[in-house]
Amino acid sequence: MGHSRWSKVVAAFVVVVGATLIGTTAGGAAERVADERLVPNEGEEHCVAHASGVDENGELIVSEPVCGSDLLVSALVNSSAMAFGPTYTIGRHYTGLNYTGSSITITGSVPCGGGVWKPSGSWNNNIESSRHYCGGSPTRFYNSSSCSGSSTAIYSSTSTLGWMNNLTSCVRYG
Q1: SS3 of 66, please?
Q2: 3-state secondary structure at position 49
Q3: What does the buried/exposed string (b/e) look like for 112-121 if buried means 16 or more CB atoms within 10 Å of the residue's CB?
């Protein structure tokens, strides 16, 4: 998958959302509600990144994250199948306890096949809770960028990574 394909999905989505908002602004209350839903809480950022495959090192080939409001991210996750075919949510990670704060959703063309995501930028060492979408296969969080050494595994969503809070430099799905 190329970045241009992802860009086309984002551009199409922006047009759809824009048209939807224009259609709902006739009543002032609808405009205020729509505006509030499109703007993240101050300091929060909600992102989605799509994994198009796995490279020779077992790392997910992940697009640049597209960020905006939680509403935008939810819509992108739901509409990405139009551009990529079947798409699965692999994981969603949060900077705060109890699924709060900023979030990043990792989607992929294949469900939880053992791929590795290495959080970068503001996501490195900044995850405190996570939603698990890998069925019976664990999602493992490592404090080493090589996915070795100390780790914790989750088999369901967890409102805290406990001792691994803000220490994750590598995530292995499935």
Answers
A1: strand
A2: strand
A3: bbebbbbbee
DSSP letter (8 states) at residue 121: G
Q: Is the distance from CB of 130 to CB of 94 less than 8 angstroms? A: yes
Fill in the amino acid letter for 88: Y
pLDDT in tens, 103-155: 999 998 776 777 899 999 999 999 999 998 888 889 999 999 999 999 999 99
Dist. CA 111–CA 82, nearest whole Å: 17
pTM: 0.74
**CB atoms near residue 33 (< 10 Å):** 12
Token pair 């993240």 is at which residue?
Answer: 40
Task: Return d(Cα 68, Cα 128) in angstroms, integer.
Answer: 20
CA dist., res. 120 & res. 64, Å (int): 11
Q: What confidence tens digit (pLDDT) does each residue in 61-81 have? A: 999 998 887 777 777 766 665
The two three-digit tokens of residue 30, written as one number? 């609808």
User: Considering only CA atoms, which of 64, 21, 71, 63 is closest in space to residue 46?
Assistant: 71
